[in-house]
Amino acid sequence: MTFKHDPDTPDHIVRRDFVKQLAAAGAASLLASEPRSLTAAEHGFEQPEATADSCILIWMGGGMAAPDTFDPKRYSPFKEGLEISSMLSTFPAIDTAVDNIKICEGLENIGQVMDRATLIRSAVQPDLGSILHSRHQYHWHTGYVPPQTVACPHLGAWMAKVLGPKNPVIPPFINIGQRLEGVGEKEELKSFTTAGFFGSEFGPMNLPFPEQASQSVQPPKGMTAGRFSNRHKLFQELVKSGPLKERASDYQQESMVRSLENAYRLLSSKDREAFDIELEPKESREKYDTGRFGRGCLLAKRLVESGARFVEVTTEYVPFLHWDTHNSGHDTVARMHSEMDRPIAQLVLDLEASGLLDRTLVIIASEFSRDALIEGRPGSKANDQATFKVDKITEKKHYGLHRHFTGGTSVVMFGGGVKKGFLYGKTADERPLIAVENPVSVTDIHATIMTAMGISPKTAYDIEGRPFYVTPDGKGKPVMDIFG
Amino acid sequence: MIKRILLFAVGATLAADVSAQQKPLDFAHQIAPILKKHCVECHGGDNAKGGFSLNTRELFLEDDMATPGKPGESHFLELIASTDPDAQMPPKGKPRVSAEQITLLKAWIKAGMKWDAGFTFATKKYEPPLHPRRPELPPVVEGRANPVDRIIDAYFAENLQPRPAAIGDAAFLRRVHLDLVGLLPTPQELNEFLADRAPNKRAKMIGALLADELRYTEHWLTFWNDLLRNDYGGTGFITGGRKQVSGWLYQSLIDNKPYDQMVHELIAPPTPASRGYIDGIKWRGEVSAGQTIEIQFAQSVAQSFLGINMKCASCHDSFIDRWKLSEAYGLAAIYSSRPLDIHRCDKPTGETAQASWLFPELGQVDAKAAPAERLSQLAGLMTHPENGRFSRTIVNRLWAQLMGRGIVHPLDAMQTEPWNEDLLDYLAIHLQDNAYDLKSVLALIVNSQAYQSKVETLSQDADVSGYVFAGPRAKRMTAEQFVDSLWQLTDSAPTSFDAPVSRGNVDPAEVAKTKLSAEWIWGDSANGGVPAAGEQLAFYTTFKIDKPVQSAGAVVTCDNEFALNVNSRELAKGTVWTQLGAVTLTTALKQGENSIVILGKNAGDTPNLAGLYFEARINFADGESLTIKSDSSWQFASKFPAKSPVRRWRLAEMKWQPVTVVPAIDAWKNAIDPVASEQLVRASRGSALMVRASLLKSDFLMRSLGRPNRDQIVSSRPNDLTTLEAIDLSNNATVAQALARGGQRLADQDNVNTDKLINVLFQSTLTRDPLTGERAALAELFGKNATAQAIEDALWALCMTPEFMLIR
């Protein structure tokens, strides 16, 4: 099942008209505390023409080490007595489908689709005093460094708010794979996994377990379709025959009933099959199924095929697990490689096969990189987060990149109008492995993603009487070089 | 292809704009900019060339310059379209209004010329007063003597506005219950109220609800937690960067502490218990200059207590009101224990902040004094009797809680002109006259006819040409109210909670005379031996109840773990034997034979001492009481179906044996004796009331229903039900389980015919009897004998109706 937008009104045309119609918003926005769009010709910009209609953010929560993934450096195999100062990468480099791009061993399948990718090796982050996962994740997902005086919307919420759903039945912002309860730093995760001041209509539909996603759009457990439908009919009957019927024009009442009707429609519609990865042919499921993350990629594929606007799928951030490699880094990353390699490559191939890749921006990113020796980057005031430090490796658990590093991080993008087989930016070949060519800030990464989606980095909403921009102060600059 | 079902179009921008031509025009973004660009220079602000100003919609309409709905009769459209150089507007030499823009303007006139509430091109003139003012009350009309009504009746007369109709007793009861104590009235409460013939029964009810300390406190806790951004979990706690004020707040509400004293204790904490508010949330690492804890202090104090948005001014001089960077820093410096460098947009200006507060007319803090002294001075100035801004801000918040919209709107922009100054000022002075007794303001408002009248019917574009009071506005139940209601209806409230508070008051005299006599018991293994590690036993007793129970509760613990089942329903579990569990039994008991089954488990790696301890007190309506306690009369079983719930056990067929009484060791006595009496009284009397959602950490369901992450101060909750919320309400497991339990409970009741059941359902959810059509719908579903499932579905459908979810 493939969602195609109405050929008569491609998304970008619709949006252009919409922007035109919005006209200027000279008047400061008034009394209402609801956010109001300040998108306006008067503000000296126009919405860019979108190169993507959907976006999948593949989130490597916990700090994906660039030298052990997409930016291999000098490789030092494990041996007792290895000097940490001489260790840059713990995986050897391998060839990819692109001559001048090498990535790390373990990512062979992704290597084969790098000819569809733009690889940015020069993403940088601020140090924020302490290089903490939760603060950097907040920054990366909202564009704003926490704390903030207003609740900042997640970038998925921005897309939901500005662009709306692509298929009206599929919620526009879907978040796969991250638990928000029962994990460490859950409150910190919740603080950015939100639509913030946009209100919950634009907030995430959270699907922490891909294999259970279908339950989120099903009648309650144990309730047959017939009973579910009868229950809804009873609701309608009560609304119709109750004393409020004379107030049917009441806006508040009407909108409540409408929301319940909408929910019923999704829960009883064919479209909800997009949430059920069990419906995928076995062969296809096996290609993805390297674990929960792989199944999340499969779910993301199905949702985008059905017209999802923004989907985030993560390896999940849990303190000291997965990418949060504070010890046994090499072994953990080897496992992460095997979890991510097949499903990501398959996702790209499947989207390409269904013709959706051209209009779907797929991004692989993480809150920062890692290094074996340097915390933050040289000269930063960042507090050292490392729990133990050794100069020489004596045990296997010391082997790996165990420190938070903000000076040079890799971001991979596929589809959605970005160049194919393109390398952008460069990090040093010797420590410190900082970006030495075309550094790209989080703000500019955001500007790039939003521009691809047809949202100007200057787009703003008025909240509490002040403009709130999709990139801070509207100053994000898209990296135009990466667009094809 | 996929069916294009308009689903997420609700409120979603693009989907809505696909058909922008049919949609209502957006005044602020489509129309106002055209007017501003082409007309306002001469016909707006302080200018009115040719005597014409379009500052407001009313002014625009004068002299037939515009006629809503009739572009043909709107003179200004002729002028802007005219090509006559002498008549055309804008005049010769100025850029013309484009054809596209004229089309928009025409469409706008045709659609009724909608204008955003309060919008004006005029230079803003309103400056809110600082001092309190005692307005002269208009004469009493038709015996409506409540000061609120005297003011509002005069307002209605002046605005030629009809009074909204009065509401009936049932609607009043539901509204006032939810507004003052946050809970639905029970069918019994409803029927008693309806039967009451006293002419002042509404006033009596209001008095009774406000006097119900526990329920009042646990409802208003939500409002205060939002306003003070206090919670039991959230960002910052993980690193100790944040402290609760929960215990202090709870007790302040129980005591109905005067508001000025509350704020004094928050700003200048006399003990650490109320300190969390000013200390804000300290994040690890560096934060921007606009978010240090000192600046957070300035922002919080200004917003919570004065309705001032200091967020803009803490970065640069505000563009939207009169506050300046130096004033924000001055406020922050009162709190700061270090010299505070002023930063403009995160860059130091080279100046150091001088501690000062916002209204020097009332006095000033001594910048040279020590921080604690400065805070105390600030608290004094804030709560100064001449600080009318302070009292107006809180009464406006209370009015909005009860009436659905503030007298000043938005609530945190108190510089905005109120729709009725006399009303705001009167409420504020009433608060001050009554020694800052918050309940006195609530009582004044809810006793008014204005409150006790029908809610306004709202259209989507309500307030487009300014707000006019036309009765209260319906409020959506908060997440906490909805969850509490669900628990109340289905008897599925949890037995424990997260708030670090002591619930309710217990009578010390009763505690003093309550002596527990339970004994520690175990199985055969304790008879001359030492129980094995991990041994699991089931303990069992039965008893009869033959008269109405008023309240009942129990204390229980087990070395090492227990699970308590009353009438085969699990009520409590415990894994820490040193903590005596206190459990309310009131709703779990039934007339006739009752059973208690407690699963006990020993822990450890080697054989060790084990024992179970239980005592229940059942208070009957006639004043007598019954004690059930663990002793030699109990029985135990060592073989039982551990994997299946107790309700599936065949108790009669199991092999029960007499228990062994185990002599209590000192460790047991020490853990239990100091607290047992009070806990038992509390369980059986004090908190016979169910645990409330306000006492719990936020969960998935509450977040979905709009409970905020309390990282920021929140003074109003969303009023709309979103589609994602509706999905959760339709299939959320917690909701479904509660409803299933509620259905089962009602189905289990004996001697309830369908008709009576339908009445109970309507009375307990909507506080009224069903109409004919409604009764028919449920009767059809139920047939002769309503199944648990059918009742469950009926409960769901009733709880989803707007009538249920709205307080109206």
Model description:
The complex is a heterodimer of chains A (about 475) and B (about 800). Chain A is an alpha/beta fold and about 475 residues long. Chain A contains twelve helices and 17 strands. In chain A, the strands form five sheets. An eight-stranded mixed sheet of chain A has the order 7-6-8-2-9-12-5-13, sandwiched between helices. Chain A has a three-stranded antiparallel sheet with strand order 1-16-17, with no helix packed on it. In chain A, α3 runs parallel beside α5 (about 185-190) and α10 (about 290-305) packs parallel to α11 (about 330-355). Among the domains of chain B are: about 25-110, no CATH class; about 285-380, no CATH class; about 510-685, Sandwich (Jelly Rolls); about 725-805, no CATH class. Helix content of chain B is about 40%, strand content about 10%. Chain B contains 30 helices and 16 strands. Mean pLDDT of chain B is about 90; it is low at about 1-20. The chains are: A alpha/beta (about 475), B alpha+beta (about 800). At the A-B interface, α1, β1, α4, α5 and α7 of A face α1, α2, α24, α25 and α26 of B.
SSE layout and pairing:
The complex is a heterodimer of chains A (484) and B (808).
Chain A: H1 11-22, E1 36-37, E2 54-59, E3 93-95, E4 102-104, H2 108-112, E5 117-123, H3 133-142, H4 155-163, E6 173-176, H5 186-192, E7 205-207, H6 213-216, H7 225-241, H8 251-268, H9 282-288, H10 292-305, E8 310-314, H11 329-353, E9 360-365, E10 369-371, E11 403-405, E12 409-414, E13 422-424, E14 426-427, E15 435-437, H12 442-452, E16 460-463, E17 466-469
Parallel strand pairs in A: 2-8, 2-9, 5-13, 6-7, 6-8
Antiparallel strand pairs in A: 1-16, 3-4, 5-12, 9-12, 10-11, 14-15, 16-17
Helix pairs in contact in A: 3-5, 10-11
Chain B: H1 13-17, H2 27-38, H3 40-43, H4 57-61, H5 75-81, H6 99-110, H7 147-158, H8 169-180, H9 187-195, H10 201-211, H11 213-227, H12 246-254, H13 259-267, H14 276-279, H15 293-306, H16 325-335, E1 341-344, E2 347-352, H17 371-382, H18 388-403, H19 421-433, H20 438-446, E3 475-476, H21 479-490, H22 508-513, E4 520-522, E5 536-545, E6 549-559, E7 561-566, E8 569-574, E9 581-584, E10 592-601, E11 611-620, E12 625-629, E13 635-637, E14 657-658, E15 660-662, H23 666-686, H24 700-704, H25 723-731, H26 733-748, H27 754-766, H28 772-782, H29 788-800, H30 802-805, E16 806-807
Antiparallel strand pairs in B: 1-2, 3-16, 4-15, 5-10, 5-13, 6-9, 6-11, 7-8, 7-10, 11-12, 13-14
Helix pairs in contact in B: 2-6, 7-19, 8-10, 11-12, 13-17, 15-16, 18-19, 18-20, 21-26, 26-29, 27-28, 27-29
